[in-house]
């Protein structure tokens, strides 16, 4: 995507975002676009309704929408030990997890509604009830394997890691024996989910995830 096309897309998508979130502003920093302001939401889960608002700062990468924006919470309400990286960027999930959610619309509004609001809601929900509404993952390689176990509905990390290894090669061979260990062909086993993941993003992301997942021993997922 050219620079002009990127700018047009960001401006157009921001207009749509503002129809629902009027307290957010778009800034052209000369190096790229950022969004700041107050994000309000009202969501409900398990009969618990939460209405709240957070002061946020979003950085839109130059490669957007081929790269996902990052978000920070600016008023210090979210503590460092709640899914936050050292640079204060909020942890919205593992890379593939984020891509699958972002791809649902590939817009700024979708990014806010499918990734940012659920994250802020989870924080409020935990503050209120002491538990996470949608489950919780570890960070780093362990979290990545937890994600793939969930995504492929597998019980052991080694099988998830083998599927991830195949994703990192960027090739789908339907007649290949599925790496999960079932003995079936990929196409009639985990093929559908495999293809869905493969289409969600660039191969380099899987390579990075696989590298992180390699450093862990063979363990079973929690639960
Ligand atoms: Zn996290
Ligand atoms: Zn399989």
Summarize the helices and strands and which ones pair or pack.
Blueprint (H helix, E strand, L loop, with lengths): L2 H18 L3 E5 L4 E13 L2 E13 L9 E4 L21 H8 L5 H22 L10 H12 L5 H13 L21 H9 L3 H12 L9
Antiparallel strand pairs: 1-2, 2-3, 3-4
This protein binds zinc ion (ZN) (2 copies).
One zinc ion (ZN) binds next to loops.
Offer a quick outline of the entry.
With 223 residues, this protein is α+β, with helices and mostly antiparallel strands.
Structure description:
The chain has 223 residues and is an alpha+beta fold. It has 2 domains: 3-129, Roll (Ubiquitin Conjugating Enzyme), CATH 3.10.110; 140-214, no CATH class. The protein contains 7 helices and 4 strands. The chain has helices at 3-20, 95-102, 108-129, 140-151, 157-169, 191-199, 203-214, and strands at residues 24-28, 33-45, 48-60, 70-73. Helix 4 crosses helix 5, helix 4 (140-151) crosses helix 7 and helix 5 (157-169) runs antiparallel to helix 7 (203-214). It starts with a helix and ends in a 9-residue tail after the last helix. One zinc ion binds at residues 83, 91, 139.
């Amino acid at each position: 995507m050219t620079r002009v096309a990127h700018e047009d897309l960001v401006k157009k998508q921001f207009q749509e975002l503002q129809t629902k979130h009027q307290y957010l502003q778009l800034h052209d920093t000369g190096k790229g676009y950022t969004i700041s302001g107050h994000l309000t939401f009202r969501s409900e889960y398990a009969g618990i309704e939460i209405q709240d608002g957070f002061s946020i700062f979003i950085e839109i990468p130059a490669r957007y929408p081929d790269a996902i924006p990052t978000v920070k919470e600016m008023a210090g309400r979210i503590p460092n030990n709640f899914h936050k990286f050292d640079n204060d960027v909020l942890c919205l999930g593992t890379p593939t997890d984020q891509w699958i959610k972002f791809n649902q619309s590939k817009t700024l509004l979708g990014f806010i509604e499918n990734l940012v609001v659920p994250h802020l809601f989870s924080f409020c929900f935990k503050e209120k009830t002491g538990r996470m509404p949608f489950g919780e993952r570890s960070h780093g390689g362990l979290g990545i394997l937890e994600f793939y176990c969930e995504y492929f509905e597998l019980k052991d990390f080694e099988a998830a890691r083998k599927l991830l290894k195949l994703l990192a090669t960027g090739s789908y061979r339907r007649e290949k024996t599925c790496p999960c260990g079932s003995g079936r062909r990929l196409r009639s086993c985990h093929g559908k989910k495999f293809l869905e993941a493969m289409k969600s993003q660039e191969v380099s992301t899987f390579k990075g995830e696989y590298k992180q997942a390699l450093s862990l021993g063979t363990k079973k997922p929690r639960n």
